[in-house]
Write the structure tokens for this entry.
Amino acid sequence: LFQVGDQVRVMVLKYNTDTERVSLGLKQITEDPWLRAEERYVPGTVVKGKVVSLKDYGAFVELEEGIEGLIHVSEMSWTRRVKHPSKVVAVGDTIEAVVLDIDAKSNRISLGMKQLEPNPYDALREKYPIGTQVSGRVRNIADFGIFVEIEDGIDGLVHISDLSWTHRVRHPSELYKKGDEVEALVLNIEFDAEKPKISLGIKQTVDDPWNHIPLDYPVGRIVEVEVSKALDFGLLVELEKGVEGLVHVSEISEERVEDPKKLFKTGDRVKAEVITVDTAERKLGLSIKTAQRTAELADVQGFGGSRTVHATLGDVFKGKLASLAGQGEEGVEEKVEEKAPE
């Protein structure tokens, strides 16, 4: 503002006779611009100014001599994640902004740049109605779910409970990593805040297998399964892709099993019988020892050769009852062959 030797016009503010000091003021020569600021800078007004300084939290813009406004980083873009205002503006830039709020008593004006552009979130409900299938990239992973970028700067959250119908997900990183491309359905869009919350679901893109599991795996059916994991309390086995059941340690053998991990490893294939189907808890219980007992009983009854992995004890008993009713051995064999599925 000044150089040594400059001639300036000032106003005397105070004179102290004891110290012989005179206090002067330069700004008092002109009217305080903040006195009429509320009249000139009504919220919603588009203004032009020069960027005079940058801080981590925003940029200060000089609207006129003595009046500056602040553009907070959150008001610079609707969708971009602005970590520092220098990514958007530089000192000396002349920019336009919208007056958001003014507090003349505190000499504060809040400005916004993103308000000069249409809010892309306004069209979200029309663009992505509930049930719309979208594709996107996994941008971030949290304990409670994954964030999927469905378009530039617009994320949706897939909650951990909406990742899989059958897999018990302890952490989303078990299934996904940053950068993965995924398909999801729009479940809900909430507009409680300025930035809406988009809820997505990945498991909803496929049918819930538990709609048919009770029919495909009724109690008594013997199936060949693959060991997914051996645990202290039993075996996790996969009946088909994405469908798991538990063989409790007490259902592995007639003899006491101390440590299933010593007997089985991931990938082993065994035959087990479905003993419980809990649709409410979405759990299947299986038994290896019961399947073995059933197979042994079939062999004892003489039906081992015609019995398949899909046969049940009922097939054997039906044949036996027919025999007791007076049918000949040949008739019994025909009956068993009819009952045993391909």
Notes: Helices lie at 37-40, 124-127, 213-216, 288-301, 313-324, 329-339. Residues 288-301 form the longest helix (14 residues). Confidence is low (pLDDT under 50) at residues 305-321, 324-342. The first strand starts at residue 11 and ends at 16.
